[in-house]
Structures are given as structure tokens and as C-alpha cells.
């Protein structure tokens, strides 16, 4: 089942300087805690000398996320992870990780300054990243003749369905992912073409 809420379209990085401290924000789409761990390990490999690598993420539907977490990584409690998470929640985006890598520039920012800096750089990267909404899909199985394959492919292209697999034997067996909103249309198409079909449950 695909998600019907906005998720980041991909990875993006933005950098800001605040009183000689460098703040490098990274956003990435994530679907599990393991993926979060991989992205954090990559950030530590890329920036072994950074003073702090703070982060927050939420997985699942915005507003009712299945999982969310944050980490201040040595910054004063509540000055890094929480502001990042607040921005993520405000952006109404799911399956998202934001990491902020900080190189200390020698000037202390104070608690309020840190909150503003971490929130600001998280805001800049989340505003810049593209958003995609994946529609909920249903699995369908179709048995058809060779002559029916081209009309089926055409229907998929027009209606946003994906032909996941096709097996050729005495007849053709196809597996498709059909947008939930198009399931009725798909049934009508199969009936009109006299195709044997069923939706997987």
C-alpha cells in the first residue's frame, strides 16, 4: 500500500552560517528506523569533525505519525532535536528525516539562539525539497489473450496504473498496481474487454 500523504521527493542539503558556526541541514525520505540509522551513519562518515549532528524524524502520516524521535547530540536539552521536529510537524510531511550538522565557530549562541538556528536551517531545507504524494494502490490480477495486451498497457498509461509483471503461456497473466480511485474504471475496462480479473485482498 502506497502512502496518500506528502513525503520528500528525495535527498537535499542546505547550509547556513550563524555567528561563525556552520549549520548543514540534510533532508531524506525514510520508511524505517534502519533507514534513519543508515542516513545518520553516512552523515558521521561525511563529517567526522563536526561538533554535533542533531536530528529528528517522523514516519507515517503527518499528525498521527507511527513513529517519531529526536536527538540533541550534546547540545543543551531541547535546543536542537525538538525545534527540528517542530518544523517537520509544521510542514505536514511524513516519512521524513532532517539532520543538522554543526561546526562550532567559537561564539556561543545561547539556548534561544540555538533553537532559532536549528529551526531556521531545518525550515530552509524542508521548504526547498520537493514533495510527492503517492496514491493508495490496489493489486489486480488479469488473465488475457495476446491481442488484449496492448489495450491493457494503454489503459495503464492513461490511468496511472503500473504493470508489475506479465507471464506468457497459452494465455497471458498480468499483475498490476491500480490507483484505488481507478479501481471501478479498471473493472469496467476488463468487463468491456471480457477479461478475467480479480483484486488481491
Written overview of the protein:
The chain is an alpha+beta fold. Helix content is 32%, strand content 35%. The protein has 5 helices and 11 strands; from the N terminus they run βββαββαβαββαββαβ. The chain has helices at residues 33-46, 81-90, 110-128, 149-159, 183-193; strands at 6-8, 12-18, 21-29, 52-59, 67-71, 96-103, 131-133, 137-144, 162-168, 172-179, 196-199. The strands form 3 sheets. Strands 2-3-6-4-5 form a 5-stranded antiparallel β-sheet, with helices on both faces. A 4-stranded antiparallel β-sheet has the order 9-10-8-11, with helices on one face. A hairpin with a 2-residue loop joins strand 2 (12-18) and strand 3 (21-29). Helix 2 packs parallel to helix 3 (110-128). The longest helix has 19 residues, at 110-128. The chain is elongated, with a radius of gyration of 23 Å. The N and C termini lie close together (11 Å).
> Could you tell me the number of beta strands?
11
What spatial order of strands do you see in the largest sheet?
Answer: 2-3-6-4-5
Rough outline:
elongated
Low-pLDDT stretches: none
Given the helix and strand composition, which structural class is it?
A: alpha+beta
By DSSP (H or I, 4+ residues per run), the number of helices equals 5
Radius of gyration: 23 Å
What distance separates the N and C termini?
Answer: 11 Å
The overall pLDDT average reads 89
